[in-house]
Every structure is written in structure tokens, then in C-alpha cells.
Design brief:
With about 375 residues, the chain is an alpha/beta fold. The chain is built from 11 helices and 16 strands. About 35% of the residues lie in helices and about 20% in strands. It starts with a strand and ends with a strand. The protein binds threonylcarbamoyladenylate and magnesium ion.
Length: about 375
């Protein structure tokens, strides 16, 4: 299948509108179209069609027990999708929609089996970019959309990354530039008395507590799935290997993270490999000093081996910048054929919870503390 690409100028132009209309027509015909949201690119299909939703699972290689999020253009569009619009859900819609928050509710009879993957609930989200909402509105149906990557790979945050995974697999891609949040939406289950975060994301626990009072975190999120047989997260997708770059990744956590990373760099067997580093700007500065010292030593003393060329990606100095560029950098390491990736973590407060959840999975829980 030839994949169409619409590049938007994002000036609300007639040309953009025409592109969105063409893309929406493909959705109505039951085809798959990838589109940007504020979090990551979604792989869209008609969310009320079992057949269209099935194509998503085939294109991604997605396990059949992993349900899809329905994306809507207007708040009132949720009414047809749930049999119980509870009070907590109303508060969340009011406060955080449109935005990077997915709400889980009891499903209505309209939801196809394939979308809810056999659950009694449905996950709904209203994205904040005007372009995404116009696209959904033109499609005249809720759009089911997982992240537009092949299952297990990092989510795409630009059209080129979607193309890498989905070229000739789907009908089209709307190129609306880079996503500004960079990690997937927060998922909150509102079907129990105390709402529960099933996946951390751009809307933090603190932000939710401000409007809801008590909010729980799915206890499974704090477990290491490799050591724990009882790892049964309530969002089925959280149990799968995710966000993985091709190279083996090690994540350094805690206050000695950079020091430990540096020591690893000097290991004999590492010296021969192409190593990618994912660190903050401040850490990159500190590391540059250490590397210079090491180089000097190896010039003066032939028994000390020089380091290989390193591929250093530094993301800035705050968590927002890390969230925005994390998946992009993981995919760039793949393109550059890094053989090993060494990364440092951040503290788990605020956006840090979502970031560390993704980074630990990317590293397959290969963590040095
Ligand atoms: O930011 C996002 O949410 C992006 C953009 C495209 O909107 N979408 C996204 O979809 O991340 P996906 O399919 O990659 O992740 C959806 C997650 C999965 O872990 C899935 O198991 C969970 O949502 N989920 C979907 N429906 C659910 C339900 N009814 N109950 C619990 N978890 C659900
Ligand atoms: Mg995903």
C-alpha cells in the first residue's frame, strides 16, 4: 500500500483543511491514518468499527488483549461512549480537557469488542491540538488511536519516525511537526470510588489530587516486572516490553549516577563498542571534563586505552525537555547504530514519574543504582 503524506503548514490555511478532509475521508473508508497529538503521534482508525480497529492491531503487531483509546473532538462526544459519566470523570474533563489525560469509564453498547479488548470499560481522550480535533471532527466518528509505532518500539513524536515504522503499511500520515509533550497521556481509571492512575504522563499525580482529593497509583507501576510474578497492571498495555531501542540500554539512577556511568565507560569490553549517552546538559559538561582528563592520561601512558567516539545526546536541564526528546533520541541511537546506550535518570516527582516509567522499560529494567 502506498502511504500518503500530508505536510501541514499549521497556519489554519485552506490547504491544511483540505488535507485533513482527505485524511478524514480515508478514516471513514475504514483505513488507517497517523496524526499528531500534543503527546505522541497516534495511529488512527474509525473507533466505532470493529473491522477498522482490527487493522490497527495488524499494522502494529499489537497483542489482542491491549485495548485502544478513543479520541474525541468535543467534550459532549463522550456521552455516547459511556454508560456512566461519573462525577470524577466530569471534574477531570472540566479541568484537563482538551489535554494529555485519558479517562477510563464504563463502556456503552457502542464500543466495538476490538476497541475495549474484552474489558467492560473504555478509555477516552480529547487531544489539545486544534489540528487533531479538526481531523476527528471531519471524520465524524471517535478515532481509536494507539501510539503510531510498531509494538515494543519507542512512540513516534514526529512524522519521520512514524514513516520509519509504518511506510507502506498504512493509508496516510498527517505531518504536523513535532509533538510538544513527547510522552503518552496520563491514564486515570474513574470506575472505582478512589480514582487510580494506570499510566503516569503529562498530567501529574499532584495536579490530579488538587481537583480530586485522594488519587491512587496502580501498585503494579512500582514493581519491577522481571522480579515479580504478581505484576498485573490494570492497563493491559503496561505489561508489555515497550519503548525499546535496538541497543542494550543501561539506566543509572541515584546521586552517583554520572560517576557510575563514567566508570562503565572505561570498562574494557565497552571500549570497543559504539556507545550512546543520554544525559542532561549539566552532566554533559561535567563528563566533558572527565573525558579530557582521561584522554590526557592515555596520551601520556600507553597502557591506558583511549575511549571510542561517543555519541552524546543531552536533553537540556529540565524534565519537560527530557520528556519532549526522550523517544526522538532513542530512535536516533538506532539510526546511528549505537551498540550500547548509557543513560542517567531523574527524580520521580512531577513529570519525573512518567519519564522514569518509560526509561526503565526502555532499559528493560537494566538499572544501576
Ligand atoms: O497520549 C496517548 O495516550 C497516545 C496518543 C496517540 O493519544 N496514545 C497511546 O495509546 O498512548 P497506546 O495504545 O499506545 O496506549 C494505550 C494504553 C494501553 O496501555 C492500554 O492498555 C490502555 O491504554 N487502555 C486502553 N483502554 C483501557 C481500558 N479500558 N482500561 C485500562 N487501560 C486501557
Ligand atoms: Mg503505545
Amino acid at each position: 500500500m502506498k502511504t500518503r503524506l500530508w505536510k501541514l503548514d499549521k497556519k489554519n490555511s485552506e490547504a491544511d483543511f483540505k488535507a485533513l478532509e482527505e485524511a478524514a475521508e480515508l478514516i471513514r473508508q475504514g483505513e488507517l491514518v497517523a496524526f499528531p497529538t500534543e503527546t505522541v503521534y497516534g495511529l488512527g482508525a474509525n473507533g466505532l468499527s470493529d473491522e477498522a480497529a482490527k487493522k490497527i492491531y495488524a499494522a502494529k503487531g499489537r497483542p489482542a488483549d491491549n485495548p485502544l483509546i478513543l479520541h474525541i473532538a468535543k467534550k459532549e462526544d463522550i456521552l455516547a461512549l459511556t454508560s456512566d459519566l461519573n462525577n470524577n470523570a466530569k471534574i477531570l474533563m472540566d479541568k484537563f480537557w482538551p489535554g494529555p489525560l485519558t479517562i477510563v469509564l464504563k463502556k456503552s453498547g457502542l464500543i466495538p469488542e476490538t476497541v475495549s479488548a474484552g474489558l467492560e470499560t473504555v478509555a477516552v481522550r480529547m487531544p489539545s491540538t486544534k489540528m487533531a480535533r479538526t481531523f476527528i471532527e471531519l471524520a465524524k466518528t471517535p478515532i481509536a488511536a494507539p501510539s503510531a509505532n510498531k509494538s515494543g518500539r519507542p512512540s513516534p513524536t514526529n512524522a519521520k519516525d512514524v514513516l520509519d515504522d509504518m511506510d507502506e503499511v498504512i493509508a496516510g500520515i498527517i505531518d504536523g511537526g513535532s509533538c510538544n509533550i513527547g510522552v503518552e497521556s496520563t491514564i486515570v481509571d474513574t470506575t472505582s470510588a478512589v480514582p487510580m492512575i494506570l499510566r503516569p504522563g503529562g498530567i501529574t499525580k499532584q495536579m490530579l489530587e488538587e481537583v480530586l482529593g485522594e488519587v491512587k497509583l496502580d501498585p503494579a507501576l512500582l514493581l519491577n516486572p522481571q522480579n515479580d510474578e504478581n505484576f498485573k497492571p490494570k492497563a493491559p498495555g503496561m505489561k508489555y516490553r515497550h519503548y525499546a531501542p535496538k541497543a542494550k540500554m543501561t539506566l543509572f539512577e541515584g546521586k552517583d549516577a554520572l560517576e557510575n556511568l563514567f566508570k562503565s565507560l572505561l570498562k574494557e569490553d565497552f571500549l570497543k563498542q559504539k556507545i550512546g549517552l543520554l544525559i542532561s546538559k549539566d552532566e554533559a559538561k561535567l563528563l566533558a571534563f572527565k573525558l579530557k582528563e582521561w584522554e590526557k592520561k592515555s596520551e601520556d601512558d600507553s597502557s591506558i586505552k583511549p575511549l571510542n567516539k561517543l555519541l552524546i545526546y543531552s536533553w537540556g536541564n529540565n524534565k519537560k525537555e527530557l520528556a519532549e526528546s526522550l523517544y526522538t533520541y532513542l530512535r536516533m541511537f538506532d539510526h546511528e547504530k549505537a551498540e550500547l546506550i548509557l543513560a542517567t535518570g531523574v527524580s520521580e516527582d512531577g513529570l519525573g514519574l512518567a519519564i522514569m516509567n518509560r526509561m526503565r522499560k526502555s532499559a528493560s529494567y537494566n538499572i544501576v543504582k
